Amino acid sequence: MAARLLLRACALNSQQLRRNVAVRPFHRAMGIPTDDEQATGLERRTLEALKQGKDPYSILKPKHYTGTKEDPHIVPSINNKRLVGCLCEEDNTAIVWFWLHDGDAQRCPSCGSHYKLVHHELPH
């Protein structure tokens, strides 16, 4: 008799669990907060900015540029000039360093790739 009641109770509990899981996701049923709900401070600001399509701390991979005069490599800077290093060939071990100034696109003195300095505001 007790065994039948235990089996019937287990069968009812499993049916109720199946219904609850089908209606609500597991983490919501257990009361576990999502990353968005428990993030605070800098992490929360970063997640909110990423939802809006912004990249506040340059987390994402930069866009690929061809390096021509029409499509120069974009170099962000908070100043009006920046030191840039160019690996002119893929397997080259020597880096060509030059100063990039605000204004039009400038060429690398060795290979001729174009770079353009773009003013970048800090997110905080």
From TrEMBL:
Keyword Zinc: yes
Domain of life: Eukaryota
Cited PROSITE patterns: COX5B_1, COX5B_2
A Gene Ontology molecular function term of the record: metal ion binding
Subcellular location field: Mitochondrion inner membrane
Chief place of localization: mitochondrion
SUPFAM superfamilies named among the record's database cross-references: Rubredoxin-like
Lineage start: Eukaryota, Metazoa, Chordata, Craniata, Vertebrata
Record's protein name: Cytochrome c oxidase subunit 5B, mitochondrial
GO BP annotations, alphabetical order: mitochondrial electron transport, cytochrome c to oxygen
Modified residues (N6-acetyllysine): 63, 81, 116
A GO cellular component annotation in the UniProt record: mitochondrial inner membrane
Keywords: Acetylation, Membrane, Metal-binding, Mitochondrion, Mitochondrion inner membrane, Transit peptide, Zinc
Binding site for Zn(2+): 86, 88, 108, 111
